[in-house]
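We treat protein structure as text, and this decision shapes the records that our systems exchange. Below, we set out a record of this kind in full and without editing:

***
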Amino acid sequence: MEASNQTSPGGFILLGMANVLYLQVICFIMFLIMYMITLSGNVLLIIVVRVNSKLHTPMYFFLSNLSMIDICFSSTIVPKILTNTFSKDRSISLVGCALQMYFHMSLGATECVILAVMAYDRFAAICRPLHYQAVISKKMCICLASISWGVGFANGIIHTPLTFQLPFCKSHHVNHFFCEMPPFFQLSCKDTRTNEIVMYVAALIIILCAFILTLISYVHIIYTILKIRSSKGREKAFSTCASHVTVVSVYYGTIIFMYMKPRSAYSPEIGKTMSILYTAVTPMLNPIIYSIKNKDVKDTIKNKIFYVVKSLNKDILERSSKEI
């Protein structure tokens, strides 16, 4: 893949997109569609939760947090990919790259923790139903959400300065869509062992711990569900968890693959594919997965659309009668 002939002093050149025109067009359309669905789907979900008082529960509070993370996460990466698709100048400033890496690392870690928190919420609802309101109180919800965001942004503060302290003397051409740590390690002429150790330790603490906590929660959940005698009861309990399990499987799978793999095994092409999955595809799928089988969400959307259409028809009729 050829680099852009324009360079940015002190910055980097992102070589994520192919230089073949028809591939650029396909990539542009694909990313644009995913980004539009991500924004509209997650914004709609947040609005639905706010307007329907039945959805003012801990589960939907955490789901609203997840939607906000997905909007910010995707907006940190995708707009730059879209502008670079047909641009001859694919450069990004040092500050721009550092900010992109910081928010990417922060929001990615926040999503890991919030998914674990959502699993704990489902555990409390299914395994401790009588104590649910006491365990997952409003104060606890705010506390857990704050911890999730705090851990995420602390993760960004640790990794970003460490990465940009490295001397990038091999090249300033990044074979990636955006500024992410693993490709940057390959550009440095200095030993990156310290950075890699910090990355693996952070991955173990945040990603793996969150994954294990999620796994433990679901072991208890499945055990409790299997003890339910009613088949309808089991089906209802499973349906409340199915969406979350799907999201967790896709997200944790790609993140663990990307950040817990040794540097020697890193492949730029596979790395780019994995990154697309958790920065563009997963944020797009989350609102769809969580809404598609949720009766309350679907009913709220239908009722609001019906109300809007009815109001528009009423306005049109009133205007027509006045004109007559």
Notes: The radius of gyration is 23 Å. Residues 1-8 have pLDDT under 50 and may be disordered. The domain at 13-293 is CATH 1.20.1070.10 (Rhopdopsin 7-helix transmembrane proteins).
